[in-house]
Predict the structure.
Amino acid sequence: MTTITSIAPAASTGKTNSKTGRAPRRQRLLRWLFVAPALTYMGLFFGYPLVNNILISFQHYTPKTYFTGEAPFNGLDNWRAVFANDLFGDALWHTLLFTVGSLLGQFTIGLALAVFFSRRFRLSGMVRAVLLLPWLVPMVVSAVVWRRILDQEHGMLNTVLHAIGLAPADGVPWLSSPSVALLSAVLVNIWVGIPFNMVILYGGLQEIPRDVYEAASLDGSGPWRTFRSITLPMLRPVITVVLVLGFMSTVKILDLILALTSGGPADSTQTLGTVTYQLSFLQLDFGQGAVVGNVLILISALFAVLYLRANRADFGKGK
Amino acid sequence: MKQPTNLPAAVPANRPTRSVRLRSAWNTTAALLILAVLLFPVYWMLNTALQPDSSVAATEWFPTAPSLKNFDTAISTQGGSLLTSLGVALGAVVVCLALAAPAAYGLAQFGLRGGQTIVFTTLITQMVPGIVIANAMYSAYAELGLVNSYLGLILADASLGLPFSIVLLRAFMVSIPTEVVEAAMVDGANRFTAFIRIVLPMSRNSLITAGLFTFLFAWSDFIFALTLNTTDDVKPITLGIYQFVGAHVSDWGAVMATAVLSAVPAAVLLVVAQKYIAAGITGGSVK
């Protein structure tokens, strides 16, 4: 965060600023009018929830609160209750597995596809565009379709796996067995995330100057060596951004899991997101829901710092 | 992982020889194969939707006797939700662009004190989980009477696109020469009319991109639809299909027909506005 403040004054010495310095106060106020509505809105929809969520986490909410409006402060009671609940530890662990598994899968497949589509061949652009569809379709809808495909008895996946001898006659219980369900959720989320990874990494690959590759091939460097010594290092800034953005959108996923498994079977797919939802909106204990939400924010914030560091170079150049 | 046997530079750009053309054909075949595998769930959705009798039993591989019966069911039960989604998403686009465009212009061109910090804060807000916003907003919404209202959902959904739009539009507006606006102001326009008449038309493409993504974000929203509505008065299609699959899990044909209908905007926009979508994914996230 310190980097932001140190960049801001340096960057605002541009030519527009020298004009602002001379602008009369009334005009400066007018200029702020352009920004003020959006700032107010963001304060209400992002700032207020962040603050309120902290306050709520120290308050005692019950279904009755919605009739009486009373939510007395109760110190650390919510925090203690949440941390003492086994489900919280499980959800934290599932969130980690879900996020890391999804990222690994999305990234490796996305990168492989990006490299593949960097070759020149007919229909490349068209196919690349159509591959975006899974990312554009609402996640709930994807999850519902996958629920059908992964069905133990009548799902297409088990039918095929059984036909080629890879699954037992009664099929793999993709969504109905606690030991497999989280893996299934990861697989579906990998499918959802491939296009995003592919597009950004493809863009990054296009930025690498071609003569670097020519030099490498003159030096007799093989494809794998070139990939490791040139492509990966030169792609690093883009890779960081993809992974950090991927992390932050995956860690908070809720709709995919709710529509796929609702957190079950036997809580095996509960994550911090689903637990927040469950505590707040099903058990109507907004205080405890807020505690889990705060933990989720804390984790995101850690990665926000990473994201800012990855973007720092980019912002030094801007106006 | 696939071995990158052929890096971008490996194919000579000029003079396509026979072997190069052959390799291109192989690559096209491989690409179509990848497409078939990755888009299989989309095919399966369509396939199931077109088979009228695919109840609980296994689905046929091809819709040999296609029928639109499932779509009749889908429209009669979920048609209202589709309209709700359309209205809410369009409303969110209007709110979002109305807020984002002037803000982006101000941040790009006015050299405001603290402008950089605002841009950074905007980037960070994209990381606040939706469920946390819902958790904290619910009580405020309840007091303001915004629960179960179109306005409430539109305002919440606009927040999905606002940071993205500000960042994207600002990145474009930075490159607008100040002279263009100053010339208009010499001719007697004030800052605001110059913004409307000069800046907005010049930013058309980036406005389309920002609007398109806000639409898709709002159309896909599930968390706000689920949490900020306690009755069925305002039920977007994402919530509709979620409840539908819970209640009619035996009627997969109708569920899939609903899924197809709810995927239509994405598919149409992908075909019609492909370049804006590609620009949005890269521009909005990396910049």
User: Anything to note?
Assistant: Chain B has 13 helices and no strands. Chain B has a mean pLDDT of 87. The longest helix of chain B spans residues 69-109.
